Amino acid sequence: MTTLERSLPPVPAVWRVRAGVELKEFFRQRESVVFTLAFPVILLLVFGAVLNYNLGQGVGFVQYFMAGIIGAGILGAGLQNMAISIATERSDGTLKGLAGTPMPKSAYFVGKVVQVLAVTVLIVVLLLLIGTVFYKVPLPTGSDWVTFVWVTLLGSAACTIFGIAVSSLAKNGRSASATITPIALVLQFISGVFFQFTQVPGWLQTIASFFPLKWMTQGLRSVFLPDSFAAQEPAGSWELGRVALVLAIWCVGGLVLCVLTFRWQDREAR
């Protein structure tokens, strides 16, 4: 073995182990699985059954709604699930215990990220399957798949980092759901998840533009809708370059915010 090979870090097996632990823990919690996976599916089925009217140019509401509901699913897996689980583990002493072990702290976050990514893939596959089979929503084609993948990955990363950051807002695990869920619901309403974004009042559109969900759903609409629908966006185009920029800024800025605010214990325990 050369000197260079000896200087390279070993394969981070502890990361893989921690990722496996996080996945097992998630799927053992039926409430989390049902809420995170089933909620966007139920929304799609209900809204599709009630509001499947034509928006013009052969586009039905479900086709328009697909971008928003995928965005809501990603937000649920990244922001809600992440923030609530971290706050709960902080409150019950899990984080304090992990911080006192030889396990690198990075392994904890890697495990969480892998869990969110796996859940996000499941959500996206389920929603695409249901949308295609039951509502004949056309799948992306050609380069639209590339856009779909990078918007989904960047959006998931931004929402996950956002979730880690806002987990510190909850005073303890008991208040986590009551603290985090309203934030997610408000973002969904003002970001064009439940109806056309053009129907959102201008001042709420401005507020939504500061958060990743609005940009993620806009990027996803470019995948599912004809190019002619770009004229209905606030800027008159899909602004994919700006979508990428804002989501990337959220990832970088969110990491800084996490470093500054993350706590391994409840405030009241100090």
TrEMBL record:
Annotated ABC transmembrane type-2 domain residues: 31-265
Superkingdom of this entry's organism? Bacteria
GO BP, sorted A to Z: response to antibiotic
**Keyword Transmembrane appears in the UniProt entry:** yes
Classification via InterPro entries: ABC2_TM (IPR013525), ABC2_TM_bact-type (IPR047817), ABC_2_transport (IPR000412), Nod_factor_ABC_transporter (IPR051784)
Give the stretches traversing the membrane.
33-55, 61-79, 113-135, 147-166, 178-197, 243-262
Tell me the compartments it is located in. Answer: Membrane
The entry's keywords: Antibiotic resistance, Membrane, Transmembrane, Transmembrane helix
- One Pfam family for this entry, by name? ABC2_membrane_3
Could you tell me the membrane topology recorded for this protein? Multi-pass membrane protein
Primary location:
membrane
Q: Which GO terms describe its molecular function?
A: ABC-type transporter activity
Which PANTHER family does the record cross-reference, listed alphabetically?
NODULATION PROTEIN J
State what protein this is by name: ABC-2 type transport system permease protein
Q: Which organism is it from?
A: Petropleomorpha daqingensis
Source lineage: Bacteria, Bacillati, Actinomycetota, Actinomycetes, Geodermatophilales
